[in-house]
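chain below, 126 aa
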Amino acid sequence: MKSTLKKIIRKIAPLAFLGSEGDKGITEKGHRAYVGGMWEEIGKLQFNFLLSKGLKPEHYLLDIACGALRLGVNAIPYLEASHYLGVEKESGLVKAGLEKELNPELREEKQPNIIISNTFEFEKLG
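prediction:
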């Protein structure tokens, strides 16, 4: 698994910082490409890793730099309601993730708690 992860990182790392940053970059590239591409592959890899380490539906998951919810699209449906906690500095990424990756019914049912902050204000998560 380590060699697979290294190959993926080598492939996406050069892509992650090309072009504009912030909302302009998100608009130019799209939310999936803005975070480095390989959206589904890395999201599944992250989620399967957490499962292999014992993640259960009743656990809480703090997703630091949750971005456009690449991990969240797998974790939010799996976890109990309000058990997904995200922190992200780019509001445009979170907005795109919530609007384009999670259907409204799932958002309502699972109630992910996401804050926009670049100073790690974890106390806002409750």
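The mean pLDDT is 88. The CA atoms of residues 46 and 107 lie 21 Å apart.
thats it, cya
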